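README: folding subset

This subset contains proteins for which both the sequence and a predicted structure token string are available. Records are stored as plain text. Below is the entry for DENN domain containing 5A (1283 residues), shown exactly as it appears on disk.
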Amino acid sequence: MTTGFSSSSCRFADYFVICGLDTETGLEPDELSGECRRDGAIHLLSATYHKRLRENFDQSPLRRTFKSKVLAHYPENVEWSPFDQDAVGMLCMPKGLSFRTQADSREPQFHSFIITREDGSRTYGFALTFYEEVTSKQICSAMQTLYHMHNAEQYDILHMPSATPTGIEDSHGLLQASPSISRLQRFNSYDITRDTLYVSKCICLMAPMAFPQACRKVLEQLHQAVSSAQPPPLPLESYIFNVLYEVPLPPPGRSLKFLGVYSPVVCQRPSTSELPLFEFPLGDMFQLLGVENVLQLFTCALLEIQILLYSQHYQRLMTVAESITTLMFPFQWQHVYVPILPASLLHFLDAPVPYLMGLHSNGQDDRSKLELPQEANLCFVDIDNHLLELPEDLPQFPNKLEFIQEISEALMAFGIPPEGDLQRGEGMAKLKGFRACDVVSDRRNGNLAGSPLSSYLLKENETIARLQALVKRTGVSLEKLDVKESPSSNKDLKLQCDEDELRMHQLNIRVREIFANRFTQMFADYEVFVIQSSQDKDSWFSNREQMQNFDKASFLSDQPEPYLPFLSRFLETQTFASFIDSKILCHNEEDKEHALRVFDARVDKVRMLNVRTPTLRTSMYQKCTTVDEAEKAIEMRLSKIDHTALHPHLLDMKIGQGRYEPGFFPRLQSDVLSAGPTSNKWTKRSAPAQWRRKDRQKQHAEHLYLDNDQREKYIQEARNLGTTIRQPKLSNLSPSVIAQTNWKFVEGLLKECRNKTKRMLVEKMGREAVELGHGEGSITGVEENTLIASLCDLLERIWSHGLQVKQGKSALWSHLLHYQESKEKEDTTPGGLGPPGFIHDSERRRSDAGSALPPLKVSLIQDVRHIQNIGEIKTDVGKARAWVRLSMEKKLLSRHLKQLLSDQELTKKLYKRYAFLRCDDEKEQFLYHLLSFNAVDYFCFTNVFTTIMIPYHVVVIPSKKLGGSMFTANPWICVSGELSETGVLQIPKNTLEITFECQNLGKLTTVQMGHDNSGLYAKWLVECVVVRNEITGHTYKFPCGRWLGKGVDDGSLERILVGELMTPSSENEERLCRTPPLQQSPGMIRRLVAISPNSKPKLNTGQIQEGVGEAINGIVKHFHKPEKERGSLTLLLCGEGGLVWALEQVFQHGFKSPRLFKSVFIWDFLEKAQTHFESLEQREMVQDENWQTNTRTFCRFMRAINSTPRNIGKDGKFQMLVCLGARDHLLHHWIALLADCPITGQMYEDSALIKDHTLVNSLIRVLQTLQEFNITLEASLVKGIGI
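--- output ---
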């Protein structure tokens, strides 16, 4: 892509470079290409690369690598793109020099590379490497000497005393013969008297924009000129001068033709309304990897996962890297980008930031030997072997199957199999001339059965099989595959480029349009959610990190459910944030970056179409419709050339200059190549009106670019990433620079940690955070899971930074295991104290249930064991994430990590001095930031691991005054949570305690308890029940304060208790806690109300109305919250101050006091009312239809509750009626019925609320507000009721 190219250059190429063997300095072994440094600054992948260095010397001299030099570059320097000699030298010949003899293959190799400067601007390099005969006698002698030394070493190896008997093959497979010179012949592959020695040389063009095809042609023709017997028409200097100074960049939307040595070269550039320039062959990437792998790699790039490409071919590394980043349009990769990683930069693989890098493979080592510093969040792409290793929990790209189907169709039309082509060598030759139209005509002739896809797709590939199924389901027929006639057959168009090139352009644009269309559809209404700043630019920049630039919650709430896992993570990336920043900074069309302008134009189009056919916000797949138009534009440019550059011509050279020897690329005449044409005689010849217009446009563009550069600078400053480092500097690699780089990483990690913790707290605290002044109310909706997953990734990156030796894929889990092992060893030694890893009693968590439950000990080791015991988690990365989630839920993350790092000996053993974990101040700040998570309640372990087995501990606490010492019945309990319930569990009556294991219940909500009424004394007064999750330590209290027994209280043998999570009692933790406490569950006061009516607290009508209002308000608020932020509805209905309690107060008010020793309950009143209504119906004294319907439903519900097999008492039945009435929106009807019922007159005093028509009407109005909500009751509340 051409993002960030240097705008000052309007020349096609900036430099011409020659690299190769410097005969003056002679042969120097290239230790860096042997891939190691010795100055102690880099030992990063030391095992692998010490091995490579050793191999470099073990190999025969012809196979070793030697240092190459930049021999010459023309011109010396251009102001807009300073020449970086180190970087260009490294990337032109990344492996250094290599030698060959006449017996070896010496085919020229082309590769391209990119140099990204620290400000993000890019320069492209295009290099052709070929072999020349070595003429220097010294070099040939040096090579011969190296061979003698090498042979002597090998001879010694063969004569080891352990040599096997003559004629028997030894372990190396070398045939043992009698010692003689002939034995060494197999090693001696260079003989100065017999062999010709060749050495690699490289010519390279450095250009501001990527025209790989055109540059390749120029270089190949220059090479051909020196290697052919006939000299070229003009001296080489003429052609190089021409391409450096006289060939301009084609203007946007135009094509340009210029002359190479033997044939014309054509290049074209898209207009400002088309997708940006891209000329690498996308088809190659799909051939190498297959559609499904490409899509997975694409997803990793969008989610800013570290990506490491691996191949023997430099051009493949470059093609895949450039292809993946260009398909991200309109988004841009924001992080470290080094498609070809020189050996001297291997320490960058240690970078704890997102990166996209390419690593050269020697083709012999297999993947298992490659030790990488961190793999927890790494996507490893072995290009040559068609393999991808993905990080865990990678979400699927939205509409993945349909997307694969659409891309496959496009590839098939060009003869590329969707699953890629493993035998790419032969395959390419066969496919070169293949077009789908040939297949179609073949099928017409009866030569082919089935669809063109069938021949490729029906390989054993799971995705493709699913794709086939999808094809059938959607009715897309591959028989009707969109087949385009090859435009070359189009009589009207005379093409100026060869057909292969046109096909590459067509395939590129087709695939790019399909990818761009996905984003256009997914983000068609993104502008609505951009939060424009009201501040001026400068204050916006200074507050950038605190600002929200996009309303993520609202955007996600509009998206189809299947998109959410991917989108919620993508919206958190730097890539997306930078895209939105650039949108905010562009106040008009002129300001917009090219990519943004093109994208916005497409989005506008989609929105206009959607007015007529609304498909936005559905997961309906919209195919791309812009391909033909885009292809036509390219064909037009390639058939009608807009501009022709000045032809190469003789230069002002002295006689005798410009001669050279055939077969050798010469040192050129620097005097004629050091500067462009001084007079205007050549430019005048080629300056028709359009070029002069071009100059004006150019000045205008430069003026605009100044603003763009400022804006780019602003965005970079504003963001200045968590990474703080955009790009490694290729030249200076002193230890101090490496140390400084590592320091930047440490600072960046700390900054990222600060931003993440703040973002997570704001998200979690929701509206409360807004009141505390932390930003908008709408930012709470991004999936909590996404944020926690990104915190886990950050922790993995911190733990991977500066590792001495890598063990396992998760550095954090590996550290925890080392710690566990060292502590367990200490504890087995006699000096060890107490059980392993436990903190002693002074640090125990105090439990609010007093002595009822012994407190859980705070133990890092115990938590690690809990995770080890979970069979469902198979990988180290998964275990580390589960441990982080558990520690967050227990509010122990900071404390556990502090304890882990307090073992300094272990940390020193595992980490290098520069590692983040050994920078004491930063480490302290980091732990302090994590401490802030204790301010909120997370259920990130309980809610994610829903199928694991968890031990629970239950204690029933009887009343102290009326203890259950004489109690004879057998008690039972059933615990319910948000995920499931336990079923009935018998409790031993002597201990009233039980520990059981069952599948995760989720957050606990209710406990049903009762007894079997057996024995002489079956009456039991229970104070409360306490239940604790033995893994997370969450303790729930279920207050009761009522009797269970016949003939006492309301005669109930079982009760439903509503629970609340108990908060830890230590002051410091309470002070930190800012989340509002959960509602209190039913307390003693409410439950003792009906036992002795005379002692109840008297509430006046105003207080009762207020109570009802608050109860209803709580329920309304509950439904207005996003689903993931809602608390327990059971608490709002049956808890302290809940709806049941509020209506109880209404019916208690003005209730006539019964005779002494007799308790009357509300249920008694309701039963009498039921009898009255039923008798009226029997006597057919019905008022109107509405009244009749309401009385019938009331009586039906009463009968159902009374006939339930459960032994619930009268208050329990009242609670059930209220819950069912709320569920079915009947409460207001029933209140109206009861207010008019004659029974009310008999049982209530005149002052009772239920007799005051005004108050009853307002009560009915309040209850009616529940009608708009869909209330779902927990199963435990309505067990045994068949309504």
